[in-house]
Amino acid sequence: EQSVGPALKRAHDAGLEVIIKEGMANGRVLTRPELLKIAEAMNVAPDALALGAVMAQPFKPMVLSGAVTVQQLESNMGAVAVAERLQGKDKELLQKLMAEMRMEPAAYWKERSELAWN
To answer: Cβ of 98: how many Cβ atoms within 10 Å?
Structure first.
């Protein structure tokens, strides 16, 4: 859900720290074909791409990974290198990914509210 991006950029520009808690939308983005296709093209893990795409945003967020195992944490740590690529030589892929993954806020929050743990 990207609609808050401009507000987060203003917060960052005002000197506030931006923290993103659900950079992988509770794992839901890891099932999206758009993300999986770009991850494969970049030869990176899908979770690293998802987190790296958030880290590469202009509001320079601190991103919480949500990892619960050492294996998940090690894979998530790949996001640092992915973010650097997405801010550098792969900027076009970041724009493409963000456009393809865009979801209307109402649809995002409806889907999230229907998760079993809510």
So the answer is: 16
Predicted confidence (pLDDT) per residue in 16-47, tens digit: 999 999 888 888 899 999 999 999 999 999 99
Q: How far is CA 102 from the centre of its chain?
A: 11
**pLDDT tens column, 51-102:** 999 999 999 999 999 899 999 999 999 999 999 999 999 999 999 999 998 8
Spatial CA neighbour of 47 closest among 19, 18, 82: 82
Closest by CA to 46, choosing from 16, 70, 72, is: 72
Cα within 13 Å of Cα(47), Cβ side? 16
Q: Which two tokens stand for residue 32?
A: 């999206």
Q: Tokens for 6, please give them.
A: 């401009």
User: What type of residue sits at position 93?
Assistant: L
Q: How deeply is 115 buried, as exposed, middle or buried, from its count of CB atoms within 10 A (0-12, 13-18, 19+)? A: exposed
